[in-house]
Amino acid sequence: MRPYYELNDFDEVYLEDSFVLCAVASPRSVRLLVELVLRESHAAYAPPLVGEMYCYRRGEIVFEAVTDLAWKMYDRRPAIDASGTHDYGGIDLFEFEGNRYVIEGDFGRLSMEADICRLEVPEDGSNRRIDVCE
């Protein structure tokens, strides 16, 4: 399988230090709300805030026209940071081959066939709230 950064849009993020805030599966789609680490080459990149190592921006990893979905959920409770935000840890693995995607972290392991995989990040650099989980 091939690494995530070979996908369109994903070469400008660093998922290994990003955090999954929630994951939602519905008929034929999967959406992960993620606190993303942006690389300097990303259009929404800004210098890290004081006390942070990276530029973090909220975004979504979206899979559409999903078939053959398997989600093994791990029995982990979300971590809660100082601001009260819940997260389900990082992304330890994200690989693909053709239309087959595997993504794994503390939230579990998702394996699926999907016609579309894309990354959505507000282009204006805002950290507006994207709520796929409510």
How many separate helices? 0
Total strands: the figure is 9
Q: How far apart, in Å, are the first and last alpha carbons?
A: 33 Å
User: Uncertain spans, ≥5 residues at pLDDT below 50?
Assistant: none
Taking all Cα atoms into account, the compactness measure Rg is: 14 Å
What count of structural domains? Answer: 1
- Biggest sheet: strands, sense, closure? 7 strands, antiparallel
Q: Can you walk me through this structure?
A:
- A hairpin with a 2-residue loop joins strand 2 (19-26) and strand 3.
- Helix content is 0%, strand content 51%.
- The strands form two sheets. The chain has a seven-stranded antiparallel β-sheet with strand order 1-7-8-9-4-3-2, with no helix packed on it.
- The chain has one domain (2-120).
- The protein has 134 residues and is mostly beta strands.
- The chain contains no helices and nine strands.
